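WARN retry 2 of 3 for item q-0093 after timeout on previous attempt; input resubmitted unchanged.
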Amino acid sequence: MSKTVLDLIGNTPLVESKVLNTNPNVKLYFKLEGHNPGGSVKDRPAYNMIKSALERGDIDSSSKLIEATSGNTGIALAMIAGIYNLKIELVMPENSTKERVQTMRAYGAKVTLTSSDVGIEGARDYAEAKVRDEGYLMINQFANDDNWKAHYKTTGPEIWKDTNGKITHFVSSMGTTGTIMGTSTYLKEKNKAIQIVGVQPTDDSRIPGIRKWPEAYLPKIFNPKKVDRIMEVSEAEAVEMAKKLAKEEGIFSGMSSGGAATVALRLAATLESGTIVSIVCDRGDRYLSSDLFD
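OK item q-0093 returned
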């Protein structure tokens, strides 16, 4: 049966930690989202947000789309918009890795770089001004229910099925919070006892893709009731774990995946028994121009 690129989104592999997890009574699985065609977990919400908006008639080929992104969502939106022949402008801080900017442009998107001094918040402000003053339409991953619903429809059911319903803990980094919101909603419907663990950076850490948002920028889709526990990880721990994942488990990923794995392993060490699933949200080749693997 012939497939389109869109048919390849989701159904990513779940692989067991064979080296880093040393607790014999706990199974730790990594869900490899870098296997999506656009290279990250963000293919899921990007596809759902654009497809749903088209189906509702909210957007069409004449729409001028815009989105602020720190990287992976932008790449996914650029890919999906290209497939549907939609025009999109992606706004990101100028210190984003070169690979990300080039990948978005390769898919046909317009990329605008804003000052790194104001970070992703500055990119969001720029995009909002374009919506207000120039008639652009924002995908708005931070407030778009189609973001978390993508994970309710796909990520949650895949994890439930692939662990044969045995999952006890789900660990995910928190950025837009779409992954953790949608997956939590599905898993809690299946079994209320499953613990949902969110990962945030410590106050002095900068980890791309994971944020501790100021109140004014907190994603509208975030519902604290859907997260049982938030654990913090430092930049140094996330970097070290990304390197360990590559070297010892053969899993090449970015820093936010290293952060989630750090927390998953910390958790595994404290449990008497259980089945943990940790999200590996993208691939390491997206970070080669940064100093992550130096």
